[in-house]
Design brief:
- With 89 residues, the protein is mainly alpha-helical.
- Helix content is 84%, strand content 0%.
- It is built from three helices and no strands.
- It has helices at 3-23, 31-53, 58-88.
- Helix 1 (3-23) packs across helix 2 (31-53) and helix 1 packs across helix 3.
- The protein is elongated.
């Protein structure tokens, strides 16, 4: 993994976390919280998808990276929102 891949993962995770926060406002944190959960989920989501499918090359690998990072950011943000609400009650 090089620096460009890392930046793509961070940005896609950031976008996924903030998009999930906008879609689920009752589970949303602040913009900073959604971004932090999204970035973390973006890194983890890409690693999980790459381990499950194998690492792709070329355009397929880029699509896999974007999809894994974006969905990982969204999933982690939503999961953190559910956990936070459960602990708060």
């Amino acid at each position: 993994m090089d620096l460009v891949d890392l930046v793509i993962q961070l940005l896609c995770g950031l976008a996924g976390g903030n998009a999930a926060g906008a879609m689920f406002p009752d589970r949303s944190f602040s913009a900073l919280g959604n971004s932090a959960a999204g970035v973390t989920g973006g890194l983890l989501g890409n690693q999980v998808l790459a381990a499950a499918l194998g690492t792709g090359t070329g355009a397929g690998g880029m699509i896999q990276m974007v999809a894994g990072s974006g969905s990982g950011g969204a999933i982690l943000m939503i999961a953190a929102g559910f956990a936070w609400r459960a602990v708060k009650r």
